[in-house]
């Protein structure tokens, strides 16, 4: 089919070349013959082991078979490791402040990354800064790793006029930053997966981006969407540098599966060997890693990226971690899992604890209690400063809520003409403002928007 497509006169020369290369490269491998019917099953054949270097106490493994990876771990730059733990230390402080502010009614919604800091930051540290990231929503640590300003983060969460990515029109935590190569998060689960496959195919065909990679994050719940399968098939057939990181909510000791997509346990989502078992089925190099071991996550992702870029193909990383917080501010996880069990995971298996212990144990220690106190104080002060500022900032001009839905017809963006549904909605709002605008409630509310009621025409 690809050859037929490639012969279409409408395709450009480079597209024809890319299609025909793909068609040549992909083929069904020849099968060995068997005189008995062999039934395969990923669970029965033995589960995929999880790569781990740091134990729960932060000690490097002494397993002789792991020595080459232990050597690699020892070669990781100390400044990088220290910065990883600094960002991981900042994340729960940010989460705690924003989570409570939602409870106080100061923001509308929030999602924490408690317990998953090792997976998020360990992987973030393995990417290049211009790798294109398609995240789900729990990966703010990737942005923090890339130096995304806290002022922009707060502008998004508080929907202020300074929210450059979503202009105040998205729920909190739907970050995006062109400068940081972080594609804006969208709520419908799984949509990022085929988008990432398309982006990887585009990267493959973009001169000058030969060494870049696409990175796509998803929770295991999102992989229950059909989009996951479409994306993996597309990526494996079309190629392009791409690393899928699936956060599998599971106790990282690998003894039990205790993960949830909100309240749906993994037992109701798949019967195979996690998500990792699906990768080989699509011909994709796949690795399972202990997501609470930031060092193993870093090394596994670095290797995954190397394979993806050198082979111009997708690679799948499954990180086994555990969400110790509630799903979001709209959730109370005690309704479907025992708070005692969660507390015990927190105590027994913290990614922060593991990396801290490891850094403290190095011949030249890279971490100390004094440094941790300093990082916590500085982070908290910086977060609170931007929090207070954003809370007082105006919301975007009222008219902004109607724009950017359809492509501008006039081509000059800001001043473009609105399409009929927006024009009608705007007229309706104007009518309501005319009717109620001077009442106490409406007046107070309208003053929160940049330019007040007059800015309804600003678009
Ligand atoms: C298509 C779609 N269905 C349902 C939802 C509601 N929803 C939001 S998050 C979520 C759970 C996702 O779980 P997972 O992918 O494992 O990520 P986690 O929240 O555990 O990090 C669900 C069901 C949605 N946003 N989109």
TrEMBL record:
PANTHER family, per this entry?
2-OXOISOVALERATE DEHYDROGENASE SUBUNIT ALPHA, MITOCHONDRIAL
Q: Which domain of life is it from?
A: Eukaryota
Q: What transmembrane ranges does the database entry give?
A: none
Which cofactors are reported in the record for this sequence?
Answer: thiamine diphosphate
Q: What reaction(s) does this enzyme catalyze?
A: N(6)-[(R)-lipoyl]-L-lysyl-[protein] + 3-methyl-2-oxobutanoate + H(+) = N(6)-[(R)-S(8)-2-methylpropanoyldihydrolipoyl]-L-lysyl-[protein] + CO2
First-tier enzyme category under EC = oxidoreductase
Give the Pfam families listed for this entry. Answer: E1_dh (PF00676)
Q: Which SUPFAM superfamilies match?
A: Thiamin diphosphate-binding fold (THDP-binding)
Dehydrogenase E1 component domain mapped to chain residues: 87-397
Record's family? Belongs to the BCKDHA family.
Give one GO term, molecular function aspect.
branched-chain 2-oxo acid dehydrogenase activity
Q: What are the GO BP annotations of this UniProt entry? A: branched-chain amino acid catabolic process
Q: What is this protein called?
A: 2-oxoisovalerate dehydrogenase subunit alpha
Q: Does the keyword Oxidoreductase apply?
A: yes
Cite the source lineage: Eukaryota, Fungi, Dikarya, Basidiomycota, Pucciniomycotina
Classification via InterPro entries: Alpha-ketoacid_DH_E1_comp (IPR050771), DH_E1 (IPR001017), THDP-binding (IPR029061)
Q: Which CDD domains match?
A: TPP_E1_PDC_ADC_BCADC
Q: What does this protein do?
A: The branched-chain alpha-keto dehydrogenase complex catalyzes the overall conversion of alpha-keto acids to acyl-CoA and CO(2). It contains multiple copies of three enzymatic components: branched-chain alpha-keto acid decarboxylase (E1), lipoamide acyltransferase (E2) and lipoamide dehydrogenase (E3).
Under Enzyme Commission nomenclature, its number is 1.2.4.4
What's in the keyword line of the UniProt record? Oxidoreductase, Thiamine pyrophosphate
């Amino acid at each position: 089919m690809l050859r037929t497509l490639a012969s279409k006169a409408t395709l450009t020369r480079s597209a024809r070349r890319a299609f025909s290369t793909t068609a040549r490269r992909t083929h069904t491998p020849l099968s060995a013959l068997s005189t008995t019917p062999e039934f395969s099953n990923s669970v029965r054949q033995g589960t995929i082991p999880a790569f781990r270097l740091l134990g729960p106490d932060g000690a490097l493994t002494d397993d002789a078979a792991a020595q080459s990876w232990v050597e690699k771990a020892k070669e990781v730059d100390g400044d990088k490791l220290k910065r990883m733990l600094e960002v991981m230390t900042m994340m729960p402080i940010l989460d705690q402040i924003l989570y409570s502010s939602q409870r106080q009614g100061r923001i509308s919604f929030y999602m924490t990354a408690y317990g998953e800091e090792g997976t998020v930051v360990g992987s973030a540290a393995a990417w290049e800064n211009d790798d294109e990231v398609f995240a789900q929503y729990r990966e703010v640590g990737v942005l923090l790793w890339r130096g995304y300003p806290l002022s922009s983060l707060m502008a998004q969460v508080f929907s202020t006029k300074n929210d450059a990515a979503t202009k105040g029109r998205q729920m909190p935590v739907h970050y995006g930053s062109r400068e940081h190569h972080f594609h804006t998060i969208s709520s419908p689960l799984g949509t990022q997966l085929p988008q990432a496959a398309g982006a990887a195919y585009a990267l493959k065909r973009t001169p000058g981006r030969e060494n870049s990679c696409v990175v796509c994050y998803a929770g295991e719940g999102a992989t229950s969407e059909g989009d996951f399968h479409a994306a993996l098939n597309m990526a494996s057939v079309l190629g392009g540098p791409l690393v899928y990181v699936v956060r599998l909510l599971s106790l990282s000791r690998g003894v039990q599966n205790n993960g949830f997509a909100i309240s749906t346990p993994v037992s109701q989502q798949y019967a195979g060997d996690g998500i990792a078992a699906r990768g080989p089925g699509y011909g994709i190099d796949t690795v399972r890693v202990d997501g609470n071991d930031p060092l193993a996550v870093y090394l596994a992702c670095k290797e995954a990226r190397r394979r993806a870029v050198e082979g111009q193909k997708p690679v799948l990383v499954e990180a086994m971690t555990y969400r110790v917080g509630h799903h979001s501010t709209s959730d109370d996880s005690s309704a479907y899992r025992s708070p005692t069990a969660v507390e015990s995971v927190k105590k027994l298996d913290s990614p922060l604890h593991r990396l801290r212990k490891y850094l403290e144990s190095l011949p030249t220690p890279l971490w100390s209690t004094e440094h941790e106190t300093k990082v916590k104080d500085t982070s908290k002060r910086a977060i609170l400063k931007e929090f207070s500022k954003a809370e007082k900032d105006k919301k975007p001009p009222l008219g902004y809520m109607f724009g950017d839905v359809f492509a501008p017809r006039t081509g000059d963006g800001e001043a473009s003409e609105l399409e009929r549904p927006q024009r009608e909605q705007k007229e309706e709002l104007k009518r309501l403002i005319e009717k109620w605008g001077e009442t106490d409630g409406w007046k107070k509310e309208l003053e929160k928007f940049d330019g007040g009621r007059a800015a309804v025409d600003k678009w």
